[in-house]
Specification:
The protein is 67% helix and 0% strand. The chain has 92 residues and is mainly alpha-helical.
Length: 92
């Protein structure tokens, strides 16, 4: 479930800007995005989600965090690989 929330946030942020959940999601869904980022130990992304503002000023920061070196979602892919090893039981 965490992966689906993380990718939901990521895909929306890449397509519509990091602030998109403020217009389209409930507070519970935004909290689930943060929980997902924390589960994958993506603390900087969790922090960014907690700082979302309607002016979408954080979109560039999110792109830099999630996709360093121009590789879309590479940070998320790396975190997923680590979690698959560290907590394999979560994926059974």
């Amino acid at each position: 479930m965490h992966l689906s929330y993380l990718m939901w946030f990521h895909n929306g942020a890449m397509a519509n800007g990091a602030a998109w959940p403020l217009d389209y999601c409930t507070a519970e869904q935004i909290a689930a995005f943060t929980t997902a980022a924390v589960y994958f130990e993506l603390d900087e992304i969790a922090d960014l989600i907690g700082r979302l503002e309607p002016d979408d000023a954080l979109s560039h920061e999110y792109r830099d965090l999630s996709s360093p070196f121009g590789e879309d979602a590479s940070l998320i892919r790396d975190a997923l690989r680590c979690k698959l090893v560290e907590a394999a039981q979560d994926w059974v």
